[in-house]
Design goal:
Layout: H1 3-9, E1 15-21, E2 24-30, H2 40-47, E3 57-63, E4 79-85, H3 95-107, E5 115-118, E6 125-129, E7 135-141, E8 143-146, E9 152-155, E10 158-161, E11 163-166, E12 170-175, H4 179-184, E13 192-194, E14 204-210, E15 218-225, E16 229-231, H5 235-248, E17 255-261, E18 264-270, E19 275-280, E20 283-289
Parallel strand pairs: 2-3, 12-14, 15-17
Antiparallel strand pairs: 1-2, 1-20, 3-4, 5-6, 6-7, 7-19, 8-11, 9-10, 9-13, 11-12, 14-15, 15-16, 17-18, 18-19
Helix pairs in contact: 1-2
Bound molecules: 2,6-diaminopimelic acid.
The site of 2,6-diaminopimelic acid has 17 residues, from helix 3 and helix 5.
C-alpha cells in the first residue's frame, strides 16, 4: 500500500470539495468539529494529482475559536482558513484560496452575508462577495519593496535582480522585458533566490512582463510557488507583483492593476489606506467522499 493510500485511509468517509480561483486549485476539507487536523502526509495525499484528488493546496475549514494559533481572531472571524501547500507545508496567506474559501462559506450557508471576515495565519481578512459573483479579499498592507538588499533570482544560467514583497508570505518579483522571455522560462524546477538569509523559509517567485504602456496598469505573470511548483495563478503573488510594478511605475498611492495569470485575470487595487484588495472569480467544481483503497 502506498503512503498516500495509507494517509487517505485515515480520512475514510470524509466529505471534501474541489475548487479553484483562476486555475489555482484546492481541496476544501470542512472540519467544523476539529476531527481532522490533517497531517502533512494526509495533505500530500489529498493534493497528489495521481494517487489523490489533486490540487495545488488544501483549505481546511476550521472554527477560529478552536484553532489556538488564530484564536485571537475569533471576535472578528468565525472560520479559519487553515491553508496548506501541496507539499504539506503551511503558509501565512493564500489569496486565491481565500476567495474559494469564502465562496464555500456562502454556498454552504456557514456565512449568510456578502461581507464577513475569515481568520488566516496572516491575520483576519475582510471578504466581499461582489454582485457579479467575484470575490474581493482585503489582503492587508503589503510590506515592500524590501530594499535592504536586492535579491537575485536565477533560472538555469540566467539571473535577474528581483523585488522582495511580503503579503505577508514572501515573494520575489522579477521583471522581464519581452513576452517571449516569459513564455520561454523553464519553471519545472524551483528558481534559485538569494541571498539565502533573505528567504530562510523559502520564497514564491513571480516573473512579469508589462502589457501595453505603463499607464495601462496591466501586467502578465507566471509564478513558481513555494511548496507547490509552477501554478496557473497566485493571489498573494499577484498582489506582490502589483506592489512591485506600482513602485517601478512610480504609480500613485491609490492604483489598480490588471494582472493576467495563466489561469485567468485578477484585479489588484491599492487603497488610500494602503490596503491591497484582490478581486477575482472563485469556483467550487466538485464534491467528493474519501473512500479507502478497494
Ligand atoms: N496560491 C496562493 C499562494 C500560496 C502561497 C504559498 N505557496 C506559500 O507562500 O508558500 C495564493 O493564491 O496566494
Amino acid at each position: 500500500m502506498t503512503s498516500h493510500a495509507a494517509a487517505l485511509g485515515e480520512l475514510e468517509g470524509l466529505a471534501v470539495l474541489k475548487g479553484h480561483g483562476t486555475g489555482n486549485d484546492f481541496v476544501l476539507v470542512p472540519d467544523a468539529d476539529g476531527a481532522h487536523p490533517l497531517t502533512p502526509a494526509q495533505v500530500r495525499a489529498l493534493a497528489d494529482r495521481r494517487f489523490g484528488l489533486g490540487a495545488d493546496g488544501v483549505l481546511r475549514v476550521a472554527r477560529t475559536k478552536d484553532s489556538p494559533e488564530v484564536a485571537d481572531q475569533a471576535a472578528d472571524a468565525e472560520w479559519f482558513m487553515d491553508y496548506r501547500n501541496g507539499d504539506g507545508t503551511t503558509a501565512e496567506m493564500c489569496g486565491n484560496g481565500a476567495r474559494v474559501f469564502a465562496r464555500y462559506l456562502v454556498d454552504s450557508g456557514l456565512e449568510s452575508g456578502t461581507s464577513f471576515s475569515i481568520a488566516t495565519r496572516g491575520g483576519a481578512r475582510a471578504v466581499r462577495i461582489e454582485g457579479d459573483g467575484d470575490v474581493t479579499i482585503d489582503m492587508g498592507v503589503a510590506t515592500g519593496p524590501l530594499l535592504r538588499a536586492m535579491p537575485v533570482v536565477s533560472v538555469g544560467p540566467e539571473s535577474w535582480n528581483a523585488t522582495a514583497v511580503n503579503v505577508p508570505n514572501p515573494h520575489a518579483v522579477v521583471f522581464l522585458e519581452e513576452p517571449d522571455d516569459l513564455d520561454a522560462l523553464d519553471l519545472t524546477q524551483p528558481p534559485q533566490a538569494g541571498p539565502p538569509a533573505m528567504f530562510p523559509d523559502g520564497v514564491n517567485v513571480e516573473f512579469v512582463v508589462r502589457v501595453g504602456a505603463p499607464d495601462e496598469r496591466h501586467v502578465r505573470m507566471r509564478v513558481h510557488e513555494r511548496g507547490v511548483g509552477e501554478t496557473l495563478s497566485c493571489g498573494t503573488g499577484a498582489c506582490a507583483v502589483m506592489v512591485a510594478a506600482a513602485g517601478r511605475d512610480q504609480a500613485p498611492a491609490e492604483v489598480a492593476y490588471t494582472v493576467d495569470v495563466p489561469g485567468g485575470t485578477v484585479v489588484v487595487t491599492r487603497r488610500a489606506d494602503e490596503h491591497i484588495e484582490l478581486r477575482g472569480p472563485a469556483e467550487i467544481v466538485a464534491i467528493a467522499t474519501i473512500t479507502s483503497a478497494p
